[in-house]
C-alpha cells in the first residue's frame, strides 16, 4: 500500500490513511486494465488538456449536458416505501425543499441519490438503475 508499509504499525494517528489506501487498493486491483483501456480510449478522442480543468461531477455534466428538471414529472414518477406516501408530512417537506432548490441543487440531489445527474430523454419514468429500470424512490 505504501513503500515500507509492512514495517509501519497502524495507529490511531495513521488509521485513516491506512483505510483510504486499503480501500483504493481493493477497488483498483480488479479493474486496473479495464480502467487504463477506458482512459486511453477516452484520451484518443478528447484532448486531456481540455478536460483536466473539470472534476468528475462537472465532467459528467459537460458530457451528458444539463437539463432543466421538471418537478412535476419527478414527483409523478417517484415511488414511496416504508409507510411513506405522496401526502405524508415528511414527503410534503421533502418536495417543498426541492421546490426551493435551484436547478443545479436539484441535479446534485439527483446525482447523490441515483449516482447520475443526467435525466433520460423520456423523463423520470425512464430512470434506470444499475440493474434496469428503476423509479426514483423515497
TrEMBL record:
<feature type="domain" description="HECT">
    <location>
        <begin position="1"/>
        <end position="138"/>
    </location>
</feature>
<dbReference type="GO" id="GO:0061630">
    <property type="term" value="F:ubiquitin protein ligase activity"/>
</dbReference>
<keyword id="KW-0808">Transferase</keyword>
<comment type="pathway">
    <text>Protein modification; protein ubiquitination.</text>
</comment>
<keyword id="KW-0833">Ubl conjugation pathway</keyword>
<dbReference type="InterPro" id="IPR000569">
    <property type="entry name" value="HECT_dom"/>
</dbReference>
<dbReference type="GO" id="GO:0048814">
    <property type="term" value="P:regulation of dendrite morphogenesis"/>
</dbReference>
<protein>
    <recommendedName>
        <fullName>HECT-type E3 ubiquitin transferase</fullName>
        <ecNumber>2.3.2.26</ecNumber>
    </recommendedName>
</protein>
<dbReference type="GO" id="GO:0005737">
    <property type="term" value="C:cytoplasm"/>
</dbReference>
<dbReference type="Pfam" id="PF00632">
    <property type="entry name" value="HECT"/>
</dbReference>
<dbReference type="GO" id="GO:0006511">
    <property type="term" value="P:ubiquitin-dependent protein catabolic process"/>
</dbReference>
<dbReference type="GO" id="GO:0016874">
    <property type="term" value="F:ligase activity"/>
</dbReference>
<keyword id="KW-0436">Ligase</keyword>
<dbReference type="GO" id="GO:0016567">
    <property type="term" value="P:protein ubiquitination"/>
</dbReference>
<dbReference type="InterPro" id="IPR050409">
    <property type="entry name" value="E3_ubiq-protein_ligase"/>
</dbReference>
<dbReference type="InterPro" id="IPR035983">
    <property type="entry name" value="Hect_E3_ubiquitin_ligase"/>
</dbReference>
